[in-house]
Every structure is written in C-alpha cells, then in structure tokens.
Amino acid sequence: MKKHNFYAGPSILSEYTIKNTADAVLNFADMGLSLLEISHRSKQFQAVIDEATALVKELLEIPEGYSVLFLGGGASMQFCMVPYNLLQNKAAYLDTGVWAHKAIKEAQLFGEVEVVASSADRNYNYIPRDFKVPTDVDYFHYTTNNTIYGTEIRKDPEVGNVRLVADMSSDIFSRAIDVSKYDVIYAGAQKNLAPAGVTIVIVKDDALGKVTRPIPTMLNYKTHVDKGSMFNTPPVLPIFSALQTLKYYKSLGGIREIEKVDIAKAAKLYEAIDASRIFVATVPDHADRSIMNVCFVMKPEYAELEKEFVDFATAQGMVGIKGHRSVGGFRASLYNALPMESVEALIACMKEFEAKH
Ligand SMILES: *Cc1c(COP(=O)(O)O)cnc(C)c1O
Question: Mind listing the pLDDT tens digit for each residue in 57-108?
Fold first, then answer.
C-alpha cells in the first residue's frame, strides 16, 4: 500500500534526495568508495559543500555580507549559540510555543530577556499581535513556524534597526524571505531539507564580534565562518542529502514555485477541515495558520472517535498524523516533499470516516 508520510520531523524527503543519497552511500562521486568512508577534506566532498552553499545562497537570494554554515548540534544548539554570540546586555523574544520557549530559557543564561508577547494563554493557538520590540535590545528573536501548534508568521516582521534572528527550522524553503532584514537565520535540516544531523545557519558577518565575552571555539560562529564549516568534521551525509534536496528545489523552479504549491496544499486541507461536521482546526484565525503543519481535532461531541480515526487513517496508509501530545488530535505536516496526492488521500480518508459517523 502507498504510504503518505505526514510526520512532523524527521519527515518526508524527495525521492530524488533519498535515491541519490542511497547511491552515494554505495559509491560516492565514482570514487569506488562509500560517502560514509571518505575524507571530508577530499576534493569530492569539498565540491559538495561548496555547491550546497552556493545553492542555499541562490535559492534564498542571500545578499553579499552573509555566510552560510552547516553545523551540527541541531536547531536546539542555536538556542545557545545565538545569545552566546549576539547577546551583550538584553534581547527581546516572542513566545509562540515550545521551541520559542526553549530559546528564551537558553538566552536567559546570557543576559536580560524581554518576552515581548506570548500566546501561552491559549495553548499557543494564535500569533500575538500589537507587541512592541524595544529599541535598546541586541536583537529580536522569533520562530517563524510553530511546528507543534500549527501557527506561522509568514511576513518578515518590521523591527526598525533592531537585529533580527529567526528559527526557521520547519518552514525554511517554503517561502521567499528578505534575508537582508535578518542577522541570523537558523534551521535544523530534518523538516524541509535533509536527514537529521545538520543545521543551516545564515549569519550576517557584520553581526559578529560585538560581544565582549569569550566564546568557546566550537560555539563561536566566527570559527565556522572562517573555515567554511570545515573547522572540524562536518555532518557529511546530511550535507550531501541537503545538496540533493537543494538541486531538486532548483529543478522545481525555485522557492516561489514551491511556495505556490505549498499554499495550495494547505488551503485544500484547511478547506476540507472547515467544511467538516466532525473535525475542527485548532488555529481559529486563518491568518495565523501554518501551511507546513496543519493541526486539527475532533469536535467535542465526537471526541471519543479520536483513536478510531488514527487507526482508520493508518490502515489507509496515512503515517504520522497523530498530533503532538501538548495539542492532541491530529497534525498533518505538509512539507515541500509531500505531494498534493497525499493531501487528497488524507481528505478522502477523512470524508470516508465522517460518512461512517
Ligand atoms: C524541530 C524544531 C526544533 C528542534 O530542532 P533540533 O534539530 O531537534 O534541535 C527547533 N525549532 C523548531 C521550530 C523546530 O520545528
């Protein structure tokens, strides 16, 4: 039976990515050796990281003055690397969910943190509006897509002269962004790019070297900027896979084309949920709804059917639709590699289930 992969992360990758990665594990760049057993300093691997860097710059239209890094440690490592490198006195954070909250907790180890707004009061099912970012902060940090709650901020915020930092782990490459507004963008690879193990960091060179504290070598962005992510052994396999995904994105016509499809996929699923008698979306305001992670639950009068629906959908090939434990219900993640066909299969499955009840 065909599987439809709605996992939130690690999550679906393109067949192109998986096939080329599998081939390289057997025979990398016609070296007669596996990608797993060659030096990261070989000219063949250097070519991989160079091309991946160039493609990130091309696809995201990154202007001059920025470095693209491929680092280990996951997006969670960036929760501490950002304040380590950028927070001298005070930073502002927007609290839109678990990941934002974890970032705040780390930043508090380095200086004063002003939480400008929070949507914790309604279990993070909306994006706070009308908050003010103070002008005397070293930077403002926010999470563009809240993977667990299915909310998303798709418009780069206006923060005047304040440095802007974003965790884009679960929606990078799903929309065109104005990189020039940001000082740091980071994203763990395992949502829209590659297997777990590498994190993309886009850093404005000019933002570095402004704090007075000593920074451990490996946690210092400057180390990795100076060495082109090759200070130590980088995560070779996920970087190779990332390159395949980036090539695939380019072949699709780039980010703007991908964005159109992503918007259409999400619109179709939300429309089906909104029209349903038994399902309801957890994010009421359409403007706040994520196009990457669609969260929905059973209406209260059908609440007892939740487990039955998961079993029913699983039997029809739907994988990974159980909601995160802090929201419950269901979550369908519609990352770039998920075809429209899978969205249609899920909708058909929901309709069939609804007709039975
Ligand atoms: C998954 C995720 C993270 C955590 O990523 P790790 O690579 O596991 O550390 C952080 N932020 C967001 C928005 C995520 O979706």
Answer: 999 999 999 999 999 999 999 999 999 999 999 999 999 999 999 999 999 9
Which among 95, 138, 167, 262 is annotated as catalytic?
167
Q: Which residues pair with 188 in a beta bridge?
A: 199
Pick the catalytic residue: 95, 138, 171, 191? 191
Name the closest-CA residue to atom 5, ligand 1: 75
Answer whether 47's CB lies under 8 Å from 229's CB. no
Biggest distance spanned by C-alpha atoms of the chain: 65
Ligand 1 atom with minimal separation from the 188 CA: 7
DSSP 167: E
Instruction: Write down the pTM of the prediction.
Output: 0.98
- Can 121 be counted among the known catalytic residues? no
Is the separation of the CB atoms in 76 and 102 below 8 Å? yes
Contact (Cβ atoms closer than 8 angstroms) between residue 124 and residue 96: yes
First CA to last CA distance, the chain: 25
